[in-house]
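Working notes for the structural subgroup meeting. M.R. asked for a predicted model of this chain before we commit to crystallization trials. I am recording the input and output together here so anyone reviewing the notebook later can reproduce the run.

Input as submitted:
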Amino acid sequence: MDGVFFYWVSWLVWISIMFFIPNTVAYRFDYLFHLLATMVLVGYTLEISPLTIHLSGIYLFFILCIYMRKLSLMKTIEVVIGSLIIALAYASFQLFSLLDPIWLILKAPYLLCILLNYVILMLFKDWKRRMSVLLIGMILGDIVYTSLLQFHSFNYVALSYAWHDQAVLVLAANALWRALELLSGYFLSQTRFLSKERKEHYTQ
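Returned structure, recorded in token form:
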């Protein structure tokens, strides 16, 4: 059932932030409010002929744009270009999976997750920008994909429950990669510290 994975993960994250993150953490209330608003708005749609779009995706797009308005001009250009690359990658993958699904060796959501995260890792080092660009790119990509289907008289709702499940999967994979980066950095620093201590011990 589409949307179950989205709601399950969203509530899990919301509860974790609500009860385990201190009030002193910056943007804690913002995260709680925006996450709750997204869960509420996902059930409503907006019809912009000939497109039908879920309001939660539009809400997320504008919120991310507002938060990134403080970026410098060069960083803004990087975000725009990165979002367009992710959007084209998303729309292209969806079209290929629709027109020629034989080449899919895994389920389409898993392959798309691998593809988008590989592309974003090549584009950005900052994990916060990765998450933002991934989300903006997927929103734009699904709108492009929906527009192409509507042009050929195929009915498709943009930013649907299935899209939210896919977006959560992609973002969760990116967060997991960030956790692995932190763990590898921690173990590397510990290894260097131990090796330094051994060298000092042998020189004494």
